[in-house]
Amino acid sequence: MDYLLAEEGKSDLGALLKSRSLYAFDFDGTLAKIVRDHQAARLARPIRFWLEKLANRAPTAIISGRSVEDLRSRVGTAVPHLIGNHGSEGPHTRREDMQQVRETSSGWLQLVNERFQDELTRSGVVIENKSYSLSFHYRTADQRDEARALISRIVAELSPPPRIVLGKSVVNVMPPTASHKGTALLEYMRRLDCSTALYVGDDETDEDVFALRDARILTVRIGKKKGSSARYFLKRQAEIAEALRLLVEVGDQSIHTWSGCHEQGVPLPAQHPNE
Ligand SMILES: [Mg+2]
Asked: What is the distance in A from the centroid of ligand 1 to the CA of 265?
């Protein structure tokens, strides 16, 4: 992994500007600082400022573990393409597939509520129902080892067995048929007619994109980490503002940069907020 804001990284960022690229980002820990209260996460002012400018110039997307509705409440209209539930929620997924994923997730939630509610409450684990997946948050649990053991015990009971993605103080469980961040990014590149992409993330779920090892995708991890498949890293989350600023300013210096970026490729159907 190399530092993105050194010479080679900057030059690779600049190369993206020469083709029609999709600029895609994870939300928590990438565009927004990780905060103790999951509900308090928001975009810092400089990040919103540069993100909005970039989104006005080129196809821009957020691919997050949060639901689309939750993302929209935090991002508003700053970014046009919001993809939720680790890549499985958005207009790119088929209605029937989403329905099936939703039914699996709600079946799991029912089992968890019936059998484990008291234990979860006692251990301080908060379960988040994201309609298409469930997340067990243990950031505020006093006994983190016990909380993790309880979550493992619960996850082992779920049927069909979920795809498990560990995050920062969170265990995400997704129906096995749900699409992930990697498949979502590729699908959006196709739909938006982009030949290259940038993807920035900070967590295990983002490895689904990094591990594609697709030469068209410039991958960046927030925080250097051994074993990550990302090509580049940023030292800390706040540096995303600098990367966004560079893209916008370097892009604006050449009149050729954003050509062809304003039309949004193959039109996407309207998002269905109630699905
Ligand atoms: Mg994240």
From this structure: 27
CA-to-CA distance for 147 and 140, rounded, in angstroms?
10
Task: Give the three-class secondary structure for 8.
Answer: helix
Per the CB < 8 A criterion, the answer to whether 133 and 173 are in contact is yes
Beta-sheet strands, E only, within 132-265: 134-137, 163-167, 170-174, 196-201, 217-222, 232-234
Q: Which helix (H) or strand (E) holds 62?
A: strand 60-63
Residue 178 in tokens? 């749900």
Residue 213 and residue 230: Cα distance in Å, rounded? Answer: 8
Architecture of domain 95-174: 2-Layer Sandwich (3.30)
Q: What is the pLDDT of residues 117-163, one digit of tens each?
A: 999 999 999 999 989 899 999 998 999 999 999 999 999 999 999 99
126 CA from centroid of ligand 1 (Å): 18
What ranges do the domains of the chain cover?
2-67+79-90+179-253, 95-174
